[in-house]
Amino acid sequence: MSKTIPDFTVNFKYEASSLFMMKIGIIGCGYIGSMIAKNFKKDVLACYDRNTERMNKLSHILNRDIKCSFEEILKMDLDLVVESASIDAVRNLVPDLLKSGKDVMIMSVGALADHELFSTLKKIASENECRIYIPHGAVGGLDAIRSASFQGIEKIVLTTRKNPEALGMSVLKEKTVFEGYASEAIKKFPKNINVSVALSLASEKEVYVKIIADPSIETNIHEIYVKGAFGKMNLIFENLPSENKRTSILAALSAINLIRTLKSEIVIY
Ligand SMILES: NC(=O)c1ccc[n+]([C@@H]2O[C@H](COP(=O)([O-])OP(=O)(O)OC[C@H]3O[C@@H](n4cnc5c(N)ncnc54)[C@H](O)[C@@H]3O)[C@@H](O)[C@H]2O)c1
User: Fold this and answer.
1) pLDDT, tens digit, for every residue of 45-90?
2) Does ligand 1 come within 6 angstroms of the Cβ of 200?
3) Is 37's C-beta closer than 6 angstroms to any atom of ligand 1?
4) How many Cβ atoms are within 10 Å of 206's Cβ, its own excluded?
5) In whole angstroms, what is the distance from residue 55 CA to residue 26 CA?
6) Residue 268 has what pLDDT?
7) Is 35 touching ligand 1 by the criterion CB < 6 Å?
8) Does the pLDDT value for residue 3 go beyond 60?
9) Which CATH topology does 142-239 take?
10) Which of 82, 86, 162 to mutate to test the pocket of ligand 1 (most atoms within 8 A of CB)?
11) The domain 13-137+249-263: what is its CATH number?
């Protein structure tokens, strides 16, 4: 697992001068939270993590103390709160964020495999006139899959191949470690297979998932096959892992791109 890019800031090129300011809070100051802080230094006003060291690290990146309690974040005037923490945080913290009238970006999208939680969050968002944003995460093509879903998707299959270390297991040769539907996959691999739930939401059909532990690879490979009235789609992503081996760099970039879109008068979707 040596091919990681430890750090980066994104070059926004021609759009940079026309980006609007936003007031952003971050829940979860790990890899994705840090990447957002690095790329939107002026916009990030607050952060919360159950690990104080992580909050200090983010404050250090921004050169100002932005650590807050969750209650302080609820009271702040923020345009967007990014959840980049865990499924547990979506379940326990996102409802109150929405009740306080804040738009929320959910990275731990696996939480939404729980249909009851999904409906509750939608209802609270609607009652409080706020939005829940779900970035494409570690795969792409959600836009096309969403469009295709309007005429019905017959079949959607995700095959994910990762190094066993990233899956938190020790396997000496290639082995299929899971086969079944997304809602089961996310219970068994809550930090590894968020993409399956994002794809299920986009397609409005539960994705069939195969997870392969492969010690011969260093990348996180996702292959998506979709068949429907529109025709067929084959998508392959060969992602470099970040410093957090379970998280692909592309997932952090997807959060950065979504914020950039919200800050820009140009929307490329
Ligand atoms: N949508 C996707 O495709 C995709 C891809 C990669 C990662 N993810 C998910 O995004 C999230 C963040 O990923 P990361 O790589 O930055 O993780 P990370 O482990 O580097 O950081 C997560 C941080 O959140 C904090 N945290 C966790 N639960 C918390 C809670 N209940 N309250 C307060 N703080 C809490 C942890 O202390 C940690 O500092 C994870 O849930 C991960 O599974 C989604």
Assistant:
1) 999 999 999 999 999 999 999 999 999 999 999 999 999 999 999 9
2) no
3) no
4) 17
5) 10
6) 80
7) no
8) no
9) Dihydrodipicolinate Reductase; domain 2 (3.30.360)
10) 86
11) 3.40.50.720
